Task: inverse folding
């Protein structure tokens, strides 16, 4: 029996009804924005500028975890850190409509940051340092921690148990991913015990909106506990020498507001490896959602898994190299 995907009943009319149910007067204009995990819309208002409505994927986060994210972003905004907190409407930031949880945000425009510009990287580093200075004040209690089990071992188990790997590549993938996870564990052992704090969690260029006034950090949906380097490494690219320079620029701004433990550099390639493994399982877990089958038509082909095997072999080699030196 076919099971409808989680957003099958979230029609345009339902979106407008949800917003009008909390007292927002929509003018009928609705623009779906680029989001796969959740559903996000720009909604025209009769009075005032458009707003952004975010409908959370059912059963992904409990309400307490979503509210904890909202509280963290509000805490950052209160300290004049450029983030976009959910609006309080009737003293609430999280609302319900026909089984969906949703929140409403002000609209903030912007462009992608120029990550090849050294001043831009230092500017980003300063604000990430400010986010982490707040993030280390207290832990999350309802949101998870970035660890090897949840980002590596469990995703692999899911992929193998649900037969996403083609039969002719299953043995090769199983072998290389096991080797990769062993390398990840060794990286964590070399780093030793490092501080975990509240993170953005998914701090790549697509989640930074840049204007002439500087950056705005958006989409804290993956916010969790973890090491500081998690919010820095995704802004690095290119060959080793280029990444070394970029990291130095980020840390030049970061350490104005927050100390950085250099032992965390042992985790950089390990965290990249975990993200690659987790990403494949993330798509697989959402494969009943037509937004994913449309957006990722190349997923689950033989070529896709051949590329993942090669990618993991390259990561194993990268994890065997000395960490970046700043």
Result:
């Amino acid at each position: 029996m076919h099971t409808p995907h989680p957003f099958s009943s979230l029609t345009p009319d339902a979106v407008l009804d949800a917003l009008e149910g909390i007292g927002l007067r929509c003018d009928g204009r609705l623009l779906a924005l680029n989001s796969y995990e959740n559903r996000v819309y720009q909604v025209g208002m009769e009075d005032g500028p458009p707003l952004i409505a975010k409908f959370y994927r059912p059963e992904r986060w409990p309400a307490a975890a979503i509210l904890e994210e909202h509280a963290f972003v509000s805490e950052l905004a209160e300290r004049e850190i450029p983030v976009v907190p959910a609006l309080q409407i009737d003293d609430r930031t999280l609302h319900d409509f026909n089984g969906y949880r949703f929140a409403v945000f002000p609209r903030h425009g912007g462009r992608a940051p120029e990550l090849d510009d050294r001043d831009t990287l230092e500017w980003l580093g300063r604000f990430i340092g400010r986010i982490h200075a707040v993030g280390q004040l207290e832990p999350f209690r309802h949101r998870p921690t970035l660890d090897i089990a949840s980002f590596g071992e469990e995703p692999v188990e899911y992929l193998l148990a649900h037969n996403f790997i083609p039969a002719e590549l299953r043995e090769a993938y199983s072998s290389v991913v096991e080797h990769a996870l062993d390398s990840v564990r060794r990286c964590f052992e070399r780093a030793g015990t490092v501080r975990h704090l509240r993170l953005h969690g998914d701090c790549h260029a697509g989640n930074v909106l840049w204007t002439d006034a500087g950056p705005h950090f958006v989409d804290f949906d993956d916010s969790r506990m973890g090491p500081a380097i998690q919010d820095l490494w995704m802004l690095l690219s290119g060959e080793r020498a280029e990444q070394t320079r970029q990291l130095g620029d980020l840390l030049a701004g970061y350490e104005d507001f927050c100390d950085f433990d250099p032992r965390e550099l042992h985790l950089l390639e390990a965290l990249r490896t975990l993200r690659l493994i987790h990403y494949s399982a993330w798509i697989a877990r959402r494969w009943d959602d037509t937004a994913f089958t449309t957006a990722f038509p190349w997923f689950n082909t033989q070529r896709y898994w051949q590329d993942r095997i090669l990618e993991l072999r390259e990561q194993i080699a990268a994890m065997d190299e000395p960490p970046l030196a700043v």
About this structure: The mean pLDDT is 95. The radius of gyration is 21 Å.
